[in-house]
Amino acid sequence: MRATWIAVDWGTTHLRAWAMDHNDAVLAEARSDDGMGRLARDAFEPALLQLIAPWLGPGITRVVACGMVGARQGWAEAPYRAVPCAAAAGALVKAPARDPRLDVRLVPGIKQDSPADVIRGEETQIAGYLAQLSGFNGVLCLPGTHAKWVHISAGEIVSFRTFLTGELFALLSETSVLRHSVAPAGWDAAAFQAALAETLSRPETLAAGLFNLRAEALLHDQAPETARARLSGLLIGAELAAARAYWLGQEVALIGAPALTALYADALAAQGLAATRTDGAAMTRAGLAAAHAALKEPT
User: Fold this and answer.
1) Is the distance from CB of 120 to CB of 68 less than 8 angstroms?
2) pTM, whole model, 2 decimals?
3) Is 12 helix (H, G, I), strand (E, B) or coil?
4) Regions in the chain scoring below 70 on pLDDT
5) Distance (Å, rounded) from C-alpha 2 to C-alpha 20?
6) How much of the chain, in percent, has pLDDT values that exceed 70?
7) How many C-alpha atoms does 103 have within 13 Å on its Cβ side?
8) Structure letter (DSSP) for residue 278
9) Phi/psi class of residue 253: alpha, beta or left (left: φ > 0; alpha: ψ in -120 to 50)?
């Protein structure tokens, strides 16, 4: 099986590739833990080849990649585009490849000068969403390690804000004192909603609420599954409080992993806002397909 072209999502901790046919349908998928964070610059090409070699033929195969592979520490730097800007990828950066079968193009990120902020990877999901729903005007929320709230108008990214919510959850639940109180899995929906309401209405209580999770476990035997849900609720509530100008009275669409977008949808529903949900991986592929289609020159 030979791919017509290859779509790649290359983050800090992961590498995921899809073999695509001429209709942009997925022929095969492969992934590894060779994220940008563990690779030296000369290790990107070998890591990619290890994953996609079975899909390559004798000729040249184009690879379109988004994410941290285009960061300053990546394979090659794909400079940021400044907002306001079209969601479509624009000019891609060609990465240096020694293997003559590879033509690797990198999607640039997005930057905002004030308040200072950057997007690297999520811009492709945004482009994929707008390629399928070109008339959308409103706000896209992309939950994840670094959650993004993005204002879209007339097909352009107008402004955005990033929140460290997902990374904070991981750090607090896995390496802080809360690791003794928070379960690695399990859920308590009522506890999530109560904690969400707490910091959404009073975000200044976040730090105290976080330590309360430890105290409740020590003094009242709070279930670790309840602590996990409360931790998530406290952090997402504080995020929603800070992002209120983005979602209040707006049309909001959520893009990301289904389990995570479900949490945000529940949180917004409690505020009377019905957000739509879309799978993040599908939008990444759609965005990469749009970037590939926009490349006019032959390989």
Assistant:
1) yes
2) 0.93
3) coil
4) 296-299
5) 9
6) 99
7) 14
8) E
9) beta
Nearest residue to 83 (alpha-carbon basis) of 114, 57, 59, 58: 114
- Give the CA dihedral 74, 95, 52, 7, nearest 10 degrees: 90
Length of the chain: 299
Distance spanning both ends of the chain, measured CA to CA: 19
Reduced 3-state DSSP string for 197-257: HHHHHCHHHHHHHHHHHHHHHHHHCCCHHHHHHHHHHHHHHHHHHHCHHHHCCCCEEEEEC
What are the structural domains, with CATH classification, of the chain? Answer: 5-137+281-294 (3.30.420.300), 162-279 (3.30.420.310)
What is the per-residue pLDDT for 87? 87
Give the separation between CA 226 and CA 239, rounded to whole angstroms.
20
Assess contact for 160 and 83: CB atoms under 8 A: yes
DSSP 181: T
Burial letters for 38-58: b for 16+ Cβ neighbours within 10 Å, e otherwise?
A: ebeeeebbebbeebbeebbee
